[in-house]
């Protein structure tokens, strides 16, 4: 709509919500009807049920300028989001803080200093066992952009 052109959406949109947005725009139901049907059978057998599609329809919220996810959003086992705050704890891998315009000229400087993003160096396995590549932990931390958040850091992401 014309009144929303040039406006910024301030609400929380999970990556899973984009499935719902595309479904709404296509006029398709985002629910998984086959999983719902399978749950009837699973329930009769006393088996664990399949979870519903984790999606909040966001299109109308985007058009209205409202937040479709006002409750706390579970991001990972080390992070939760309750807009405008994000609480993170423990070691955060690939904690790269980019500006509003990315990539930019500083991207090349950062590549020179830190190198490119690499696979998880602490998760290389051989025959199911962790393989120590012999890198000092400080180098692994730098290459993987690990931010040690300890018991927690609170960020205002607004």
Summarize the topology:
Elements: H1 17-26, H2 33-45, H3 59-64, E1 73-76, E2 79-82, E3 85-88, E4 91-92, H4 105-114, E5 125-126, E6 129-130, H5 137-143, E7 147-148, E8 153-156
Antiparallel strand pairs: 1-2, 2-3, 3-8, 4-7, 5-6
**Helical content class:** 25-40%
In what range is the share of β-strand residues?
15-25%
Any idea what the radius of gyration is? 21 Å
Give the helix/strand class. Answer: alpha+beta
Distance between the termini: 25 Å
Brief descriptors of the model:
158 residues, two-stranded antiparallel ribbon, single chain, 8 strands, 5 helices, alpha+beta
Please describe what this structure looks like.
The chain has 158 residues and is an alpha+beta fold. Helix content is 29%, strand content 15%. It is built from five helices and eight strands, in the order H-H-H-E-E-E-E-H-E-E-H-E-E. The chain has helices at residues 17-26, 33-45, 59-64, 105-114, 137-143, and strands at 73-76, 79-82, 85-88, 91-92, 125-126, 129-130, 147-148, 153-156. The strands form three sheets. Strands 1-2-3-8 form a four-stranded antiparallel β-sheet, with no helix packed on it. Strands 4-7 form a two-stranded antiparallel sheet. It has a two-stranded antiparallel sheet with strand order 5-6. Strand 5 (125-126) and strand 6 (129-130) form a beta hairpin. The longest helix is centred in the N-terminal third of the chain and has 13 residues, at 33-45. The protein is extended. The two termini are 25 Å apart. The mean pLDDT is 86.
């Amino acid at each position: 709509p014309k009144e929303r052109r040039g406006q910024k959406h301030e609400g929380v949109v999970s990556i899973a919500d984009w499935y719902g947005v595309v479904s709404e725009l296509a006029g398709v139901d985002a629910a998984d009807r086959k999983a719902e049907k399978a749950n009837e059978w699973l329930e009769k057998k006393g088996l664990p049920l399949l979870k519903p599609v984790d999606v909040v329809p966001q299109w109308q919220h985007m058009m209205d300028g409202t937040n479709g996810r006002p409750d706390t959003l579970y991001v990972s086992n080390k992070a939760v989001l309750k807009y405008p705050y994000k609480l993170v704890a423990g070691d955060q891998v690939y904690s790269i803080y980019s500006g509003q315009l990315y990539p930019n000229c500083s991207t090349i400087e950062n590549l020179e200093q830190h190198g490119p993003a690499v696979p998880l160096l602490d998760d290389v396995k051989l025959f199911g066992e962790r393989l120590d590549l012999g890198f000092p932990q400080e180098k692994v931390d730098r290459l993987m952009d690990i931010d040690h958040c300890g018991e927690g850091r609170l960020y205002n992401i607004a």
